Amino acid sequence: MKINILTLFPEIVRPYFTNSIPAKAIEKDIFSVDIVNIRDFALDKHRTCDDEPYGGGAGMVLKPEPVSLALEKVTENLKTPVIIYPSPAGIPFDQSTAYELSKEKELVFLCGRYEGLDQRIIDYYDIKEYSIGDYVLSAGELAALVIVDAVIRLIDGVITNESLREESFSSGLLEYPHYTRPAVFKGVPVPDVLLSGHHENIRQWRLRKSIERTLDRRPDLLHNKALSEEEKAILEN
Ligand code: SAM
């Protein structure tokens, strides 16, 4: 996969790719990243990238020309780029979208600043707008990295499939709680079943915890899930 990130602040984006999972995946050639400074495409000597909104009101808007020039430069050698604008006004980004995006070959992220992009950029380049949650960040870099992080860990070879299989959302449920050594911490013991070595009992306990947690914290997930007979039985008890 090729990832391109267009931003006014490359220095915010760059460090993410130099550590841990993304750095190892880049080393293994699983994906590559190109970070492009939109300001390099500004048209005036002051390298201006924002302007006042038509119609008045607070804040500034990213000027369309530098964004458009940067986008065209970045995409000129790409075949099927998916262009993403993280935006609080976008559709909610979720795990199934992360799965879909992990199958793409070329992703381009456009990080917003100020009040955001000129709408004509979004319409002209058929850009997908995703929101990472119902709150407003001051800029798009962190949101773009949230999406990148959720996507790249789903690409084959980045992390073990075993870890992905039982994660929150992969089965439509939140994940069960985890425990590690010591067996007693601050006077609180690990649940007995996890020390039993009985795999079937552990599986059932984990499923029950997943369902209880989902019911408590995210009942909306249960409404959208096709439940197995076992899951229905746990819910009814
Ligand atoms: N005026 C915009 C609105 O009310 O919808 C908010 C602009 S915000 C201050 C600046 C930039 O941060 C946005 O262009 C977007 O790229 C990013 N951003 C802020 N909140 C976000 C969210 N919840 N999801 C994705 N991106 C977000």
UniProtKB/TrEMBL annotation:
It comes from the Bacteria. Belongs to the RNA methyltransferase TrmD family. One of its GO terms (molecular function) is tRNA (guanine(37)-N1)-methyltransferase activity. Residues 1-223 form the tRNA methyltransferase TRMD/TRM10-type domain. It is an enzyme of class 2 (transferase). S-adenosyl-L-methionine binds at G112, I132, G133, D134, Y135, V136, L137. HAMAP family: TrmD. It is found in: Cytoplasm. It comes from Rarispira pelagica. The lineage of its organism: Bacteria, Pseudomonadati, Spirochaetota, Spirochaetia, Winmispirales. PANTHER family: TRNA (GUANINE-N(1)-)-METHYLTRANSFERASE. Its EC number is 2.1.1.228. This is tRNA (guanine-N(1)-)-methyltransferase. Homodimer. The keyword Cytoplasm applies. Keywords: Cytoplasm, Methyltransferase, S-adenosyl-L-methionine, Transferase, tRNA processing. Specifically methylates guanosine-37 in various tRNAs. NCBIfam families: PRK00026.1, trmD.
